[in-house]
Amino acid sequence: MNVREIRPAPRVGIVSLGCPKATVDSERILTRLRQEGYRLSGDYAGADLVLVNTCGFLDSARRESLDAIGEALAENGRVIVTGCLGAEAEVITAEHPGVLAVTGPQQYDAVMEAVHAHLPPMHDPLVDLVPPHGLRLTPAHYAWLKIAEGCDNRCSFCIIPKLRGDLVSRPAGAVMREAEKLVAAGVQELLVVSQDTSAYGRDLKYAPSAWRGTEVRARFFDLARALGSLGAWVRLHYVYPYPHVDEVIALMGEGGVLPYLDIPFQHAAPGILKAMRRPANVDRTLDRIQAWRRACPDLAIRSSFIVGFPGETEDDFQLLLDWIAEAGIDRIAAFRYEDVVHAASRELPGHVPQEIKDERFHRLMMHAQDVSAARLSAKVGRTIEVLVDALDASGAIARSQWDAPEVDGVVRVTGEGLGVGQRRMVRVTGSDAYDLFAECV
Ligand code: SF4
């Protein structure tokens, strides 16, 4: 008989102050806690941690909130503060430096992240309907890891900031805990995504948060390094060439994260980039890419480009083709410009006729194919690590460090004993425009 040790679920106490809106916030937090299996405690002594939902409306209410935090600290010692006074974290920490975390009003996710950080939920495989790493749509061996939502940029062709708002980054500790759960569940490759990955943490002022008894800053480099320590492949998507990306290239050179950058350049002609209102200073981008390749010769760059943007001339387009060849962009996605409803670019002069967009699109794709073929042929003869995605009659369909799933090429591997989700060493025997061919070693 299999006897399972029954461990009690962690208990949270809550002190709810303030108006009915604050009470509703407390109810929502309690609901989330119960959904995740936490038990509730009616007193300080029985709680593993106490949440104080504060009010900051009047001076008397602020005083009452600060006193309530002091009482919870004295009686229990482990206190997380949320609610209206939480919007002024410095007022709280000045009087009560011992609080574990402070979040503001209606920040349900941030409160739950703080609770998870200081009192992890307990997963019961016999009762829980959802595994600890959540439900996923990807195969078991790779997973998307979203580190932020929204975007602070205002590219003229894009309405994402209108739809999703400004950048809101997840605390680094929360990202790391999710990544850890994914790796523990067998994920071999973490695909880091957001609208502007290299801007990660700017809204949090790069604040550190707790992870594994230490702290990780909400900073692109710090997060990449911490993710790289988990042992899975780490692939970075939607990065802009801000200066601090150089640090991450050094990390790639040391093997901390995959030598792969997905940078949506969208164009190369200065006038078009200006009309697009693209982020990051594109001056001297070619020099930067060349410096990156010197620091990390294996670096692969994936990018997307828009053809036929309003005002694009034949010279602009030719400049784009030359730039792609010179930069050696390994993987390319191309799009014909479309007038998106509510996008500022609709109002720009010089809209390009559809047949010219089509013609440039095909020329770009042919050009991209030539660049890709040349770059892949240089890899023939090398021994590389691949991750197996699927098995087929002659062996397996796998990916190298230079191939993101679903969008890039593959490595067609022949050999025995291959299994989905395996990482194997193979020798590259051939290449074509998009794929490599290899045999197991
Ligand atoms: S950086 Fe990306 S998401 Fe942000 S506005 Fe530009 S295209 Fe849109």
Structure characteristics:
single chain, 441 residues, alpha/beta, Rossmann fold, OB fold (Dihydrolipoamide Acetyltransferase, E2P), five-stranded parallel β-sheet, five-stranded mixed β-barrel
Under CATH at level 1, the class of the largest domain stands as Alpha Beta
State the helical fraction: 25-40%
Number of strands: 20
- Residue fraction in strands: 15-25%
Largest sheet, in brief, is: 5 strands, parallel
Number of helices: 12
Mean pLDDT: 90
Q: Ends: how far apart? A: 44 Å
In order across it, which strands form the biggest sheet? 2-1-3-4-5
Task: List low-pLDDT spans.
Answer: 1-5
Judging by the overall fold, what is the CATH architecture of the largest domain? Alpha-Beta Horseshoe
Radius of gyration, Cα only, in angstroms?
26 Å
Shape: globular
| Whole-number tally of structural domains | 3
- What small molecules are bound in this structure? iron/sulfur cluster
**What's the CATH topology label of the largest domain?**
pyruvate-formate lyase- activating enzyme
Q: Briefly note the structural class of the backbone.
A: alpha/beta
CATH superfamily of the largest domain: tm_1862 like domain
Architecture overview:
The strands form six sheets. This protein has a five-stranded parallel beta sheet, sandwiched between helices. A five-stranded mixed beta barrel has the order 16-17-18-20-19. The two termini are 44 Å apart. The chain is globular. It is 32% helix and 22% strand. The protein folds into three domains: 108 residues, 3-Layer(aba) Sandwich (Rossmann fold); 236 residues, pyruvate-formate lyase- activating enzyme, CATH 3.80.30.20; 58 residues, OB fold (Dihydrolipoamide Acetyltransferase, E2P), CATH 2.40.50. Helix 7 packs parallel to helix 8 and helix 11 runs parallel beside helix 12. The N terminus is likely disordered. It contains twelve helices and 20 strands. The protein has 441 residues and is of the alpha/beta class. A hairpin with a 2-residue loop joins strand 16 and strand 17. The site of iron/sulfur cluster has 10 residues, from helix 5.
